[in-house]
Amino acid sequence: MSIPLMKTVPALAFLLIMAGCAANMSSRKRVDIPLPSSSRVAVLPFENLSGREKAAEKLTDYFQTTMTGRDRFELVEFGVLYDHLRQFRIRSSTLLTDEQIDSLAASLDLSFILVGSALEYEEFDNNYLGRVPQVSFNCRLIDCATGKTVWVATSNRSGDSGELVFGIGAVRSADDLARRMVSEAVDDLSDLFAKN
To answer: Are 162 and 21 in contact, with CB atoms under 8 Å apart?
Structure first.
């Protein structure tokens, strides 16, 4: 093997690895200063626009689980939140009125509300890899004091997007893929809050 070719092969391998690790999440923060670490946050049930049964419930649970125990904010327990959603007859988290936000904020001492939608949650047949999942969702963090959105994110990923060669790096389950995507979104969201 010639010297130039020996230098080219590692460079190509590095590019393939980096392409496999490329993020398919885009987010945008709309605040310049860190949010207070003493903030209380609630994850409202996601809306299901995917057509796949239980997709929204799974995403809601993944966000709830991943956000629990973070030291940059306090998460409201879902059972407590659910009781208040029933009390105030809130059926849609994406169509919240200012009055509903005010009611939840006052009764639960909330600073922020996370809402979102499951857009796609499928597994497709692939002749080479078998089942390949496709998951996409969007979410936003609402400031209860102003009713304005302070952070938005959309995430769309296929299970084969991280594949390097021969199926290595591919994700085979929609649930596993969704958990990874949620973890990435929660990391980004956590960076909005001041460190303790």
So the answer is: yes
How many CA atoms are closer than 13 Å to the CA of 106, on its beta-carbon side?
7
User: In degrees to the nearest 10, what's the CA dihedral of 34, 79, 87, 60?
Assistant: 60
* Predicted model pTM: 0.82
Domains in the chain (CATH in brackets) are 24-190 (3.40.50.10610)
Tell me if 114 sits within 8 A of 141, measured CB to CB. Answer: yes
Sequence letter at residue 75:
L
- Helix, coil or strand: residue 19: helix
CA–CA distance, 95 with 115 (Å, rounded to integer): 10
Residues in a beta bridge with 149: 142
Q: What is the mean pLDDT of residues 170-176?
A: 80
Residue 131 phi, psi (nearest 5): -85, 130
For residue 8, the model assigns a pLDDT of: 47
Length of the chain counted residue by residue: 196
* Cα angle: 108, vertex 109, 115; to 5 degrees: 70
Q: What is the band of 11 on the pLDDT scale with cuts at 50, 70, 90?
A: very low
The pLDDT value given to residue 131 = 73
Helix or strand holding residue 42 (H, E): strand 40-43
- 191 and 151 Cβ atoms separated by less than 8 Å: no
> DSSP 3-state assignment of 44?
coil
Retrieve residue 46's tokens: 């996601």
